Amino acid sequence: xxxxxxxxxxxxxxxxxxxxxxxxxxxxxxxxxxxxxxxxxxxxxxxxxxxxxxxxxxxxxxxxxxxxxxxxxxxxxxxxxxxxxxxxxxxxxxxxxxxxxxxxxxxxxxxxxxxxxxxxxxxxxxxxxxxxxxxxxxxxxxxxxxxxxxxxxxxxxxxxxxxxxxxxxxxxxxxxxxxxxxxxxxxxxxxxxxxxxxxxxxxxxxxxxxxxxxxxxxxxxxxxxxxxxxxxxxxxxxxxxxxxxxxxxxxxxxxxxxxxxxxxxxxxxxxxxxxxxxxxxxxxxxxxxxxxxxxxxxxxxxxxxxxxxxxxxxxxxxxxxxxxxxxxxxxxxxxxxxxxxxxxxxxxxxxxxxxxxxxxxxxxxxxxxxxxxxxxxxxxxxxxxxxxxxxxxxxxxxxxxxxxxxxxxxxxxxxxxxxxxxxxxxxxxxxxxxxxxxxxxxxxxx
Length: 446
Ligand SMILES: Cc1ncc(COP(=O)(O)O)c(C=O)c1O
Hints:
This protein folds into two domains: 26-44 and 313-440, Aspartate Aminotransferase, domain 1, CATH 3.90.1150.10; 76-309, Aspartate Aminotransferase, domain 2 (3-Layer(aba) Sandwich), CATH 3.40.640.10. It has 14 helices and twelve strands. It has helices spanning 5-19, 49-61, 78-91, 118-128, 144-152, 165-178, 206-216, 242-245, 274-283, 285-288, 295-309, 313-337, 378-387, 417-445, and strands at 35-36, 111-115, 135-139, 156-160, 189-194, 222-227, 254-258, 268-272, 370-374, 390-391, 393-395, 406-410. The radius of gyration is 23 Å and the shape is globular. The model has no long low-confidence stretch (mean pLDDT 92). Bound molecules: pyridoxal-5'-phosphate (PLP). Residues 117-119, 122, 143, 145, 194, 198, 227, 229-230, 258, 260, 268 line the site of pyridoxal-5'-phosphate. Pfam families: Aminotran_1_2. Belongs to the class-II pyridoxal-phosphate-dependent aminotransferase family. BioF subfamily.
């Protein structure tokens, strides 16, 4: 049978991706036997016998476990409401560091609303909360879900350079010039950032971002939204995230915490004011038109938050961050002293992760569970490491900008220092081979 026009179009798109070496595919299912340097299960809670036992015990003693019966607007399960109340209390705990400045924001993120995923929360929020004629100013590395929300939004969106407070300030001042009424508090500007960026392991300079936003818009019409998908469970008191760690919870408009990464669950909670929560219940289509989290998911999330509240996650996250420091310092040192010169295109750490990065303390210097190994050859490096038993994934355009290809290393509570040493040794062996090969090619050409 001759292929239809649609089949031809789809096949051509895939062939084009294949020709450019950017075709995506599902990883082989045997990955489970490899050492995990790839998943977002940072605290290794998905493999915690203690958490698993607690979850199974709770499931066995809970009446409602299957399904949820429909959208939150159809069946508002009391376990969902109870979890929201719990999370509202958890994320507003008063043992966090003192608030750095009295809150200028009229609408504080003090209420909690569950979504089926972080993706749904971002799409739902950005599609409906910014109003027509508002602006969304976003970090250029913001997650795809925010992009999808912005596409559906009636507000105009403008990027600023990744983590650049200076560029953000320029964009905000430019907006004020373009729309003088913003200075009078008429209209709103939303600023979308992540606390920890998933592909780069960079931490957002939140205090400076907030300061720039507040001074550009002293009438408090700049609203900051912080996606804590990758920092939840790792940073801050009780794993409450980087906003809490910095005592900035009263200066942000919305905070997103997801359950699917360090918490080994499914779902997400958006912390917003009661007014914004009511608005989302009325307008967020990713909340209204979908079956809500199953009761079993709610039991699972509660068990993970029990774990955080017990304080046991803190030792795990300390271990993860110690592994991260070990990886960056060992690799930087070996690269520096390598007898075979390794050029940065073959293997390098990003500049901000090198020990000499900066002498003045900055958030960027905090260790993070995500360490990108920069290389122009991410697929061959990943293939070598996988063949040697280490599960890593190559990251290429369009997930990261062209020229910024990498192998993304994620560190976990279950990883050991010995495994990190193996990762460094195998990566260096591969890099030395590539360096020798390419220098041979160069001298052959000469
Ligand atoms: C920064 C960020 N935000 C949101 C999401 C979506 O969260 P979820 O996996 O719960 O849909 C992700 C997941 O990849 C993420 O990395």
